[in-house]
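On clarity, I found the account of how folds are encoded harder to follow than it need be. An entry of this sort, consisting of the sequence and the corresponding backbone structure tokens, reads as follows:
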Amino acid sequence: MDNREDQLLLLQKQILERVALGADFQEMLDELCLASELLVSESVCSIMVFNQSRQHLNVVSGPRLQSALADQLKGTLPARHSGSSARAVLQNTPVYVSNTQEDESWSDVRHLAREFNINACWSHPIRNTEGDVVGAFAISSFEERKPSSFQQQLLTESANIAGIIIERHDREKDLWDKAHLDKLTGLCNRHMFDMTLSHAISSARRHEAQLAVLFVDLDNFKVINDTYGHKAGDDVLQEIASRLKRCQRSSDTLARYGGDEFTLLLENIDDINSVTQVAQRIIDECAIPIVSDGWSASVSASVGISLFPNDALELRELLSFADRAMYKAKSKGRNGFYFYEEGLTRVVEAKKRLSIELRSALENNEFVLFYQPVFQSSGPMSRSLEALVRWNHPTRGLLTTGDFLPMVEEEGLMDELSEWVLHAACTQAKSWLDSGFSLAKIAINFSLFSEQIDFCEMVGRVLDETQLPPTYLELDISESLLACDNDELIDELEQLRKRGIDVALDNFGTGGVSLALLARLPIDLLKMDRDFVDNLTPGNADPRLIKTIVAMASNLGLPVLAKRVETELQREVLSREGCDLLQGYLFSAPLSVSDIENLLYRA
């Protein structure tokens, strides 16, 4: 064995030992190139690997390669005529070019060989342990020459070692990504963001700098999942992540913090205006409609902002305060941003207490039903009632759904509460019938429920348990749940109608149900969205929209009910335009069981 082979063995041993000890990836590749150059005079070594998409090659190591040449080789496509490395990768075989000015392997890049004095070039594919080509190791000679058997051996061994180093690096990067990056969006995950924020706070303390934390939450994201499915929800999150990247500066840190929540860290803030500008860009970007195959969705965002050191000095407080400010932005109408205020702490603490109390409210039997009567447009009561849930809070008194229903949804209690309302209303209706009261229908609203609930099974089970005849039950389904042609829900409603249950399309006019879909929906009644009634004011009593809805329903043989009728003007216009049924405070507020019994008794 000659001295060069001894040197090669020593080279391999030293580099592999350093790889095993976890030496730096870039240092190892550079050392491999420099060590190989020592064994081949008048040469320069380089390593090219695939980019992430595995479409083209880039130089990742070449410590003595001219930077101008490395730049021009960036984006090299594996091809027969684009140089030795490009051909070696394409053919997965060593390529030995002794004359770059004559060999066809260099016909497309011969100008580079002349410009940088590359007269011979030998390249070997770099493979991983699976045998897949990941790049190429090249020895470029300033002299025209063929490789000796030793030089071929050196090229092979260097490519093998490069493969070990690259695979070790890729494996470590994959493990790091799994621990620090969000799989769906590729952004930092919660763990990585918290680590980065912790370091940023320490740095800001030392340098007396200011930073901002932005907490971004998508408004009504659950509706997209429920309407179009979780695949569409994932598409929306990926698109929003891409848009948020356009809002951040190079020094900022963006993360998907969980679900539909994102966080953004702004370091070295000069003034509040720069934070405001970023927040507004986020609002504007998120508001652009998202269009995909077969569906489109409008998404908005609520952004909460906390500042270091103005609001808090510690990581958890900064995040908590930004989160509270975000909820304040939601309460102010959503699609906006809000800076943290000290008073928000009291509001959030009250909300937290309410959330805890809500979870025990069902167990403690604190919910109660009120019933709002429905009247015929001609005047008399129709003997149909809508069941409305109230929370008889032990200290705050009677709370309406506006006070607690959003929190019910946030806490994942909507299905449980919906079943309780259905069971309680059916039980009460059966009791009234058994007592001899004349009752037409008891209506129950199902605007929100999850995909996990078997709706048809749940309704059937409750009817069986309460023994209420199905003909006395009306289910109000929000138009938004049917706007995307939800075949599964439509089939369930068909089954329920076959049992004699009426189905009403609630909030009609804003949810996007097409005329074609409306004609085939299994419904018995249209309940006009309350906004149409609210718009009937002394200064604006234009009845054209009302007239259109009534005419459309009439053509389909469906009666129309108008909700939230509060003035004589509204009653007059709605009756004149042909609404069959009216409901609202003009006729009666929601009433307790005893008050309803008095009303039914007198009717």
